[in-house]
Structure formats: C-alpha cells, structure tokens
C-alpha cells in the first residue's frame, strides 16, 4: 500500500476499499470459473467412460430397423392413406366414419385390439380388391405429399439419417401394406421396407393376404430373415419403435430404442435399460446419443394395399 501514501486518510481508505473490492471480485470470478469447469467435467463423463460413438461409421454389418406409425410418422399411415382413397371415391362416407372411429380408439387405448385389427385389415382388403398394384402405388405417391409428409417426426428422421450417413442400411418394418411403406421409405431416402403383403394376380389385388400381417413377433422374424440374407450382425444393429407389440423386434438387436413409447414399452424399456426419446412433447425422456440430421428420398419395394385406420402398429 506504499503507493497510496500520498493520499489523505479518508481518500486512502476509500481507494483501499476499492482495491480490496476489485481483488475480491477477481478472486470470486476465478473461483466461480473453476467451479463451473468442475461441474461441466462432472456432467460430461471422461472420454473413457463414455459409450462408443453410435452409429459406428462404416460398420457394414450393422443396420437400423424402424417401426412406422407413431415412430417415424405421427398417427396411423393407413388412416392417412384411407383419407386419400376416400378423396378419390374408393369408398363411402360411412366407411370413413368407421375408420375415424378406429383411429380415435387406437389413440385413446394405446394398444392394438385383435378384433379392431381384423376389422381394419378386412376393410382394407375389400376396398383394394380388383384394383391394380401399380394404381395404388401411384396414388400412394400423391397421398404421401397430401397427408403424410408433414407428419414425419423430424427427430426420428434425423436418427435414420444418422445411420445412413454412417454408411448403414435403414429399413422400415411395419404392419402397414408394403406399398405404403415403400413410398415412405423412398421419400425419406431409406434403404427399403418390410410390410404386410396383399395377394395379387397379374398385378391385380385379390382381396387376400399373403400370410399374416407383419405385426408383433412376425416383425422380429422378418428382421431376423432379412439380417441373415444381408449378412448382418444383429448385435450391432439398432431398432426403433413406439409400441410394446414390437418388444420381440427390439429384443433382437444390440441397440433397442423406445421412441414415443406407449406405457407398456416405456416401463419395459426402463426395466431393460433401453434408451428412450419422446418427440410428442418436445422433451427427451432420455438421451439417445445419436447426432441430429435430415433426410430425403429413395427406394424399397413390395406388394399390398389398403386403407383403414387403426394403430396396428405396423
């Protein structure tokens, strides 16, 4: 304080207090900065403790499998497809009212009732019977633009794109008609689609299914068969769904994710330490750990057609 010797006692005291305040402020700033660094370090685990980056770049033994309704798209794809068919006079107003009731049922119940699913399936098959597969595919392109494009969850689309950017194949796996799934997969730039197949003879729908709807355990079998054909290691693959009905499919892979999960899937995912993400409320139930991105479109194929509503969850 020798440099302050020329000041009067009162002025010296005021100046000293200012110096002291400045030093104290600087010390507090330095201390708070250190504390913030320590907190940040605690919030972000050591690199060694972090899980490996996922999806793994260039892992050609890995792929991703995405459920469609309420996972990739808000609501039931068949309902939106049905709206488009109704607009094109494929069926009557009373049918649309029934489909709307089914949609409301699935939204409220949050589960797939076998009786409702059977009714939806029969309705869909009766509506497309006698129509050409090519006609439904062409109409599907128009309906996607009219009703579906704006209902794609950006977050889920980003997850799919992350796998594509890593050089991995990405498939839709849904109980929806494979034609609908094909259109959506192509528009999103995904690799392809697995879906329910309706019988056709010489390109015309017969009103029958080939086998059963691709639902529940059937999805898991389809994924298992595709993985074998593609030479994939399921332990390195990922699967995404909102429905407890897809637990068999999710359990097949090494990286299961619950997206917009129903109550049963949320409970199971937490018990199994699966990752969750909920885009319905714009809040994450848990970090998924995959970078954001966006996608655009090409490719996939099949056979089937429909309209109906319900949540049948793919």
From TrEMBL:
Gene source species: Streptomyces sp. R21
Top-level division of the source organism's lineage: Bacteria
SUPFAM superfamilies on file: HAD-like
Protein name: HAD family hydrolase
KW Cell membrane (keyword) present: no
Similarity comment: Belongs to the HAD-like hydrolase superfamily. SerB family.
Bilayer-spanning residue ranges: 288-309
Region of interest (Disordered), residue spans: 1-50
Coiled-coil segments: none
Keyword Hydrolase: yes
Gene3D superfamilies: HAD superfamily/HAD-like (3.40.50.1000), SG protein - dephosphorylation function (1.20.1440.100)
CDD domains assigned: HAD_PGPPase
Residue ranges with Basic and acidic residues bias: 28-44
InterPro entries with a match to the protein in the record: HAD-like_SerB, HAD-like_sf, HAD_hydro_SerB1, HAD_sf
């Amino acid at each position: 304080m020798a440099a302050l010797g020329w000041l009067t006692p009162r002025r010296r005291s005021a100046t000293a207090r200012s110096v002291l305040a400045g030093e104290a402020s600087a010390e507090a700033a330095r201390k708070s900065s250190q504390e913030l660094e320590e907190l940040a370090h605690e919030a972000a685990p050591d690199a060694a403790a972090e899980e490996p980056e996922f999806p793994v770049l260039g892992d050609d033994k890995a792929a991703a499998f995405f459920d469609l309704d309420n996972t990739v798209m808000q609501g039931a794809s068949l309902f939106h497809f049905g709206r488009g068919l109704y607009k094109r006079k494929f069926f009557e107003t009373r049918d649309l009212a029934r489909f709307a009731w089914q949609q409301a049922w699935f939204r409220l119940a949050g589960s797939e009732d076998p009786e409702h699913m059977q009714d939806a399936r029969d309705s869909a098959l009766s509506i497309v019977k006698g129509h050409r597969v090519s006609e439904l595919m062409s109409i599907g392109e128009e309906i996607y633009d009219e009703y579906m494009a704006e209902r794609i969850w950006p977050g889920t689309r980003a997850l799919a794109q992350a796998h594509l950017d890593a050089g991995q194949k990405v498939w839709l796996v849904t109980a929806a008609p494979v034609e609908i799934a094909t259109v959506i997969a192509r528009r999103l730039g995904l690799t392809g689609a697995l879906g329910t197949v309706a019988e056709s003879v010489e390109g015309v729908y017969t009103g029958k299914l080939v086998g059963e709807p691709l639902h529940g355990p059937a999805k898991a079998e389809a994924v298992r068969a595709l993985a074998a054909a593609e030479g994939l290691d399921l332990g390195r693959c990922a699967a995404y769904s909102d429905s407890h009905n897809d637990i068999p499919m999710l359990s097949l892979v090494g990286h299961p994710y619950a997206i917009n999960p129903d109550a049963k899937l949320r409970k199971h995912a937490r018990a199994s330490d699966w990752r969750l993400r909920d885009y319905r409320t714009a809040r994450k139930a848990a970090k998924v750990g995959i970078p954001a991105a966006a996608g655009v479109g090409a490719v996939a194929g099949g056979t089937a057609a429909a309209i109906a509503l319900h949540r049948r969850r793919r």
